[in-house]
Amino acid sequence: MKLATxxxxxxxxxxxxxxxxxxxxxxxxxxxxxxxxxxxxIRFYEAELAAxxxxxxxxxxxxxxxxxxxxxGMSIVSQVDGIAWSATISQVFDFPGRMSxxxxxxxxxxxxxxxxxxxxxxxxxxxxxxxAGDVILLRRxxxxxxxxxxxxxxxxxxxxxxxSGSVSxxxxxxxxxxxxxxxxxxxxxxxxxxxxxxxxxAVLCGRAPDDRMSLSGVSTSFPTAPDLATLKQQAARTNFxxxxxxxxxxxxxxxxxxxxxxxxxxxxxxxYMGGQTAGNTQLEAGIVFSIPLPLWNKNKGNIEAEKARTQxxxxxxxxxLRDLERDLAVARAAYLAELxxxxxxxxxxxxxxxxxxxxxxxxxxxxxxxxxxxxxxQRGYLEAIDSLIESRRKAWQHRMEIERLTGAxxxxxxxxxxxxxx
Length: 422
Description:
Elements: H1 2-18, H2 28-38, H3 41-59, E1 66-74, E2 82-93, H4 98-161, H5 167-204, H6 228-238, H7 240-261, E3 267-276, E4 282-290, H8 300-343, H9 349-366, H10 371-406
Antiparallel strand pairs: 1-2, 2-3, 3-4
Helix pairs in contact: 2-4, 3-4, 4-5, 4-7, 4-9, 4-10, 5-10, 6-8, 7-8, 8-10, 9-10
């Protein structure tokens, strides 16, 4: 008895160990947090920020002083030979204001690195939410396709069992078999789309591509889009590309000032001492001061080059602003168009189509509905659900694109406003 009890306990422990736990449902916030923690590209941007901070420390440091010495002999006629020596300690100083400019440029580099990190995190979170919503919608399409396929398959089995041998019964069965093959294709495409979207989401979150994630609380809401002028104002404040381009323009302006100051080169200053012991002992001491004179090389080439780069940075800023306004207008118009299509769907339409497909199956089994009507109802149900889900997918993608371009989330309750050309 004790041996049996021990065996049972051991078996339970073993089964508890090898049986996988049910996957914990994940929300959009869980997925975003996991992606932030595991995504390897974030480490690249963090390292770039650390490098920029290291360059900032270097920009504020003085050049190490330089010690130079010389030792030799000296011979004077009719005098005792002796030693001649000299020693100089010199410190190189930047031209006044140049170190401040280098520090300011390094600060802009830190700002650009911080902006790059924030931009990547924002786009990663946006991509994770977009993929999660897409997975939810595609799974609904897969469920609808699977339900239709199962109805066709079950009904064919029933017809085979009660085959009367008549031509009409045979033709009805062939119609259903052909429809089953079509539904197989629809289900296969839906399943492939779900697997592809799930794999992309899993990789973004640092998981294995074949990880089957259980999603919960992931919704695809569609708040109304503000007018285009409001979106432009929001993007002007929070769009990451614009902020980076502005920082780059400011950095190039500082580089022009730094290049102008480099016409005078560095200032060298320090004490020196020398002496000789040939005949008698002589000592000499003083101060060394030197600065290059910009007589031939006035650094004009580098100054012009930095001015040209500043013009390029300003041109890129203008081009980015132009492209941003265009992309916002396109994304907003597409979003409103999809919302207009969704507004024509009544809230109960989806359930009504599903119920109609079930009723068609029940009445066909009773002989009240012909095969053509049954098949058309199942096909119509699939096409309607496909149209609805595709409209929601497109609307969701356009919403995510607007949020990516503006750098901010659309707020408000989910609505389906009438499309207006504004």
